[in-house]
């Protein structure tokens, strides 16, 4: 996945932490959001674009278009922060033949049917299964809210939650 410097799961997508801490710390010139519903809404796209920092381009794309763009090497030479709402999207990228060397689970809000495994991460059974799929395929999966936090394997939190 040429040009993609960080992959983050964050159900808030582009917001303060992503716009300031992650974008600045990673020195990105593009934030890519993969979300079919938001990509279909001009209003939602406009809101996310307003949250992006000045000078950072945004790509808010449906899954098929994003996967095609990544496969075509459209982000070569760029520094892209890829943000998705759920780990299932990343499993779908793998199914498309794209390699994910590392994934950061940043924030998944507490919702009905989820189990909180750390302060900022609550998982549904499907999300946990997707994370296990990523781990089983050799992807390093971490849980890190902001760049200053220690890069901790998600397995530490999954194991604590099972006790």
Account of the protein in words:
This protein has 163 residues and is an alpha/beta fold. It has a single domain (4-162), classed as Phosphotransferase system, sorbose subfamily IIB component (Fructose Permease). Helices cover 39% and strands 25% of the residues. It contains seven helices and nine strands. The strands form two sheets. Strands 3-2-4-1-5-8-9 form a seven-stranded mixed β-sheet, sandwiched between helices. A two-stranded antiparallel sheet has the order 6-7. A hairpin with a 2-residue loop joins strand 6 (115-118) and strand 7 (121-123). Helix 5 packs across helix 6 (125-136). The N and C termini lie far apart (36 Å). The mean pLDDT is 94. It is found in: Cytoplasm. Its main location: cytoplasm. Residues 1-163 form the PTS EIIB type-4 domain. Keywords: Cytoplasm, Kinase, Phosphotransferase system, Sugar transport, Transferase, Transport.
Shape: globular
Give the terminus-to-terminus CA distance: 36 Å
Total of helices: 7
- What summary fits the major beta sheet? 7 strands, mixed
List segments where confidence is low: pLDDT < 50 over at least 5 consecutive residues: none
Strand order within the widest beta sheet: 3-2-4-1-5-8-9
Order of helices and strands: EHEHHEHEHEEEHEEH
Q: Which structural category fits the helices and strands?
A: alpha/beta
Question: How are the elements arranged and paired?
Answer:
Elements: E1 4-10, H1 16-26, E2 30-34, H2 36-39, H3 42-51, E3 57-61, H4 63-71, E4 80-84, H5 87-95, E5 102-107, E6 115-118, E7 121-123, H6 125-136, E8 140-143, E9 152-153, H7 154-162
Parallel strand pairs: 1-4, 1-5, 2-3, 2-4, 5-8
Antiparallel strand pairs: 6-7, 8-9
Helix pairs in contact: 5-6
Main location: cytoplasm
Subcellular location: Cytoplasm
Keywords: Cytoplasm, Kinase, Phosphotransferase system, Sugar transport, Transferase, Transport
């Amino acid at each position: 996945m040429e040009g993609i410097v960080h992959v983050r799961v964050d159900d808030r997508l582009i917001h303060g932490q992503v716009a300031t801490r992650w974008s600045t710390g990673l020195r990105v010139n593009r934030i890519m959001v993969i979300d079919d519903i938001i990509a279909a809404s001009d209003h939602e796209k406009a809101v996310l674009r307003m949250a992006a920092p000045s000078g950072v381009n945004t790509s808010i794309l449906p899954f098929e278009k994003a996967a095609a763009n990544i496969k075509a090497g459209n982000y070569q030479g760029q520094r892209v922060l890829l943000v998705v709402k759920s780990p299932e999207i990343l499993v779908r990228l793998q199914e498309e033949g794209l390699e994910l060397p590392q994934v950061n689970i940043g924030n998944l809000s507490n919702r009905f049917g989820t189990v909180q495994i750390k302060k900022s991460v609550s998982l549904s059974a499907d999300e946990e299964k997707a994370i296990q799929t990523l781990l089983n395929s050799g992807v390093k999966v971490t849980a890190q809210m902001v760049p200053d936090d220690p890069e901790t394997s998600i397995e530490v939190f999954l194991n604590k939650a099972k006790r």
